[in-house]
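Obj: model holo form, ligand = 2-oxoglutaric acid.
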Amino acid sequence: MTTHLQGSLFDQADEVRLGPLGGLRRTDLGAGAWIDLLPGWLSGADALFERLATEVPWRAERRAMYDQVVDVPRLLAFYGAGDALPHPLLTEARSALTAHYADELGEPFTTAGLCHYRDGRDSVAWHGDRIGRGARQDTMVAILSVGAPRDLLLRPTAGGGDTVRRPLGHGDLIVMGGSCQRTWEHCVPKSTRAVGPRISVQFRPHGVR
Ligand SMILES: O=C(O)CCC(=O)C(=O)O
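Output (holo structure tokens):
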């Protein structure tokens, strides 16, 4: 697959390496929801992007919408709890997140969902991760982003309140925690700007989708 990623001027590192998680900064969103953010957690993120873009067995999905079947506007891959992840760095990232949040989360991050946004036409609509336990329980979803930044937007499920916007790419980490999947929803909107490709890796505990 051709990727056309314009690399970051700030991240020319060849070695793919995680930094410490001590720099995570928490924003309280209210209603028991929060996000933690760590820009540039991963150095060498462009190299990881290229590896994932070319080596992951990406699936193009189609979904029923009203009376039509439409293309899902992004490529997908999913790694369950027992599956080998497509790059050792992702295994390292999952372990580091599990260790860092052990007391607060009380269980490990186990699964990894990957989304590949090829250009600004790819997106994910407003949703919370509520297919599983996230519908009833507080939980965490940690997202590592590589490739060109795309905005992740969050807004209260109940309506009202400000929309929170975080541009994520080039090795940035965001963790959505507490009631965030129930009381807030998130999306990656389409962009009419000439944006490059981005891959997000979402680590979730067992039973959260
Ligand atoms: O790509 C992202 O950062 C968000 C992905 C997401 O929300 C999802 O796949 O449920």
